[in-house]
Specification:
Blueprint (H helix, E strand, L loop, with lengths): L4 H22 L3 H12 L2 E2 H5 L6 H13 L3 E6 L2 E6 L1 H23 L7 H6 L6
Antiparallel strand pairs: 1-3, 2-3
Length: about 130
């Protein structure tokens, strides 16, 4: 790798790390993970997300603010409602990291590979012992 390429690679890795950190930080809370699961199926208004939860609206809005700040969702006004939509790029980054780093590099040490990764399962032998 030449001298000019290194700084660009370092910047790209730092951006990826920042994106991963933000995604995993947002996913630490079970309420936010549930909201993402709902939004993976369909866009939803704030009130639709609030309805099944035992949270006050200000608390729910704080969770949505975290998800939006960390790039996992986006919101927009539609009439008098605020609609939430999934923003998949941050989730893709986290999934790619888990797949390429955790399972591809350390699959032998971790043992079994999830069924969702058939090609990876074929390349990783189970842990002995």
């Amino acid at each position: 790798m030449d001298y000019c390429t290194r700084p660009r690679l370092a910047v790209r890795m730092a951006l990826n790390d920042r994106q991963l950190d933000r995604a995993f930080r947002a996913l630490t809370d079970s309420t936010r993970r549930w909201m993402l699961e709902v939004l993976l199926e369909r866009d939803a208004s704030v009130l639709q997300l609030a309805e099944p939860l035992p949270l006050r609206l200000p608390t729910l809005l704080q969770h949505l603010k975290v998800l939006e700040k960390y790039g996992l969702i986006r919101t927009h006004k539609l009439g008098r409602e605020r609609i939430c939509s999934i923003e998949p790029e941050a989730l893709y980054a986290a999934e790619r990291w888990l797949r390429t780093v955790m399972w591809a590099r350390y699959g032998r040490r971790l043992g079994s590979v999830p069924e969702d990764y058939p090609q990876l399962r074929a390349s990783v032998r189970p842990r002995q012992g």
